[in-house]
Amino acid sequence: MSRLARQAFCSMFLPMIVLIAVMPEVRAASEDEVARLEARIKQLEAELNQTKQALQKTKQQKSETENKLAEAEKNIAEAAEDRKARLAEAEQAIEVQPAEIRFGPLRVGGAMRANYAIGDYPETDGASRSFDDGGNFNLDTFRVNLDYADGPYIGKVEYRWYNGYNFLHTGWLGYQFDDKRQLQVGVNRVPFGPGPYGVSQSWFFDQHYYLGLADDMDLGAKYHHEAGNWKWDFAFYLADEGNYIGSSHDSARYSYDVVNESDEGYEERNQFNIRGIYQFSASDIKTDLGVSLQYGELASRGAQDDGDRYAASLHMVNQWGQFKLASQVTYYRFDVDASQPLGTDKLVQMGAYDFPSTAAAEAWIPAVSLSYTLETSQIAWLDYVIPYVEYSSVIKQESRFNDSELATVGAAWGKDNWYIYTDLSASNGNEFIGGDAAFGDRLGANQDDDWQTRFNINFGYYF
Predict the structure, then answer these.
(1) pLDDT of amino acid 78
(2) Cα separation of 210 and 334, whole Å?
(3) What CA–CA distance (Å, rounded) separates 426 from 391?
(4) Residue of higher predicted confidence among 456 and 97
């Protein structure tokens, strides 16, 4: 082959030969690269799956954290509302906790109260409560309290002194089974109505008190039991709290009872009480819905037959934030003999604070109170104030009798050991409001049916 031919052959076929020679190596290199890429893709896919799982777990943890946070916020809000409710109850009960004097398990305390009153009262030569005389200021109450607590054994005694008379207010011993069960034996508060003072926040109470159906103290045994949303009280009272030292025959006592002023009247005996209160919440409103039942005998000390008495009440307390609405409606009847010393079966002899009076033997009592608890941490001289407005009435079944109404606007002011009431009250049938109408008849026939007013300030220091 000529030199020219060899050159032409090499030019044509030598690149092909070289390409054929290196193709296996190129193919091997490409397959390795593909394998590496596929391995990398699988690694990235695994990492992506791990990332997705971690992200899903993070989202789940975030959701659980948000749920726990929402539940915690709800619990905090409920705890705050419960604290406000407990504060309002404590303020209503005036359970001031001053500096204590203790002798082992016995705590000694007390209170002194002074009172200013001005209103529709007759003018006298000396200081009187009339508008014309500028009102009257005097000492109201001195009391001593003994509280006993030694393990499950508990007790309470309270004795009060007023101008010209004094009496035992409370005196009982008890056993605290646990935080939901308690027994009291002695002179204790009768379980009737929505709370210790009925619906009222004011110094004057509502008309239930003047008929022995609120803050009534009697001698007997009371058992308290809580179960779920229910609070139950069962009680039996052998007699009323008794008569103490005063000028009346049978009315030197704290709470209103049927009294035997003539020595031939009636006395309270063998009284049964049941009270149930159901607690629930709806739309941030806490509600205590309850029913109270009472039955007792009236033992005759004269020629008349024995009698009896009974009362039934529906009551409700609604707590919305710092607002409290308390309402109650009660029916009561005293079954007495017309031959009793009063000479009628339409009236019953009652008494308290060393003053006897009469009351209608049968009636309905509607009562309502609206209050607001305002904490005043920004005011140095005041811890809280509770403004309120209240109304109650005795609607008598005897058509010849006039009804007896009581309306009060006021406020309770608390600072350390001080508790002060300021009340403006108007009534056409209450023995403590005004003095121009006949005394002793206002809850009975109420013949005058005269609206009278009284402005009152009560200063109380608790120690």
Answers:
(1) 65
(2) 14
(3) 10
(4) 456
As beta bridge partners, residue 81 has none
Phi and psi (nearest 5°) for 28?
-65, -40
Buried b (16+ CB within 10 A) or exposed e, 294-315: bebbbbbbeebeebbbebebeb
Question: What mean pLDDT value characterizes the chain?
Answer: 89
Q: Is 278 exposed, middle or buried (0-12, 13-18, 19+ CB in 10 A)?
A: middle
Task: Name residue, tokens 């003994």.
Answer: 146
The residues pairing with 174 across neighbouring beta strands, listed in sequence order, are: 154, 184
415-451: pLDDT as tens digits: 999 999 999 999 999 999 998 777 899 999 999 999 9
Q: How far apart (Å, rounded) are the C-alpha atoms in residues 230 and 194? A: 13
Tell me the pLDDT band of 102, cut-offs 50, 70 and 90. Answer: confident
Q: 274 and 233 in contact (C-beta within 8 Å)?
A: yes
The pLDDT of residue 95: 42
**Distance, CA of 47 to CA of 50 (rounded, Å):** 5
Query: Which token pair is 110?
Result: 């007390």
pLDDT in tens, 351-393: 999 999 999 999 999 999 999 999 999 999 999 999 999 999 9
372-378: long-range contacts, CB 8 A cutoff, minimum separation 24: 372/322, 372/323, 372/324, 373/84, 373/87, 373/88, 373/91, 373/322, 373/324, 374/322, 375/87
pLDDT score at 337: 97
